Amino acid sequence: MRDTDIYQTLEDRQNYGEVEEHGPYFCYARYDNGIPKRGYIICHTTYDKHSPLLYDLVGDMKHFDEFVECAELIKEKFDTKRVSFSTVLTYMKKLPEFDYKAIRVWPHPYTIEKTNIKFPGDKLVLSKTDKIQICFFDKTLLKNPYKIVEKKTFVANQTI
């Protein structure tokens, strides 16, 4: 077991007790009308990134390959060229053998930030991992209380 720090940024609604009791949350950066939300809080906890209950698309190639195979199956079944991550995950969560409590993934951008560290042969460079996303299906893997560690408010009509 290795406890790993995780953070979540949420809109500041001044419901601090509720956030710490019920978080982490699924959140959006914009209101339903498309306007960016203002003010935020940052929450912290830890989780066990070596738990067998973590479906790990970052560190377990077997999980990664299974996920891609499932996406291919869905694309073939519905005769489509593309399938969303959430569609594949929803499908997998309905399988009886999918008894995981969280999924870890690296949704890298189209352009990857590279370092100047080269591998032998000069054909590969070390790239920087931007952000790893973790979706918790429940609180099973959380090892410590979910706590607010920072609050930041913005003045009305301020551009972010």
| Number of strand elements | 8
The total count of helices amounts to 3
Strand proportion? 25-35%
Unreliable parts: none
Largest sheet report: 3 strands, antiparallel
Give the C-alpha Rg: 19 Å
Helix-strand pattern: EHEEHHEEEEE
The spatial strand order of the largest sheet comes to 1-2-8
Question: What is the averaged pLDDT score?
Answer: 86
The rounded distance between the terminal residues' Cα atoms is: 39 Å
What does this structure look like?
The structure is a single chain. With 160 residues, the chain is an alpha+beta fold. The protein has a domain at 1-51 and 141-160. It is built from 3 helices and 8 strands. The protein has helices spanning 16-22, 61-77, 85-93, and strands spanning 3-11, 40-48, 54-56, 102-105, 114-118, 125-127, 133-136, 147-152. The strands form 3 sheets. The protein has a 3-stranded antiparallel beta sheet with strand order 1-2-8, with helices on one face. A 3-stranded mixed beta sheet has the order 3-4-7. A two-stranded antiparallel sheet has the order 5-6. α2 packs across α3. The protein is globular and about 50 Å long.
Relevant terms:
three-stranded mixed β-sheet; 160 residues; alpha+beta; 8 strands; 27% strand; single chain
Describe what is shown at a glance.
With 160 residues, this protein is an alpha+beta fold. Helices cover 21% and strands 27% of the residues.
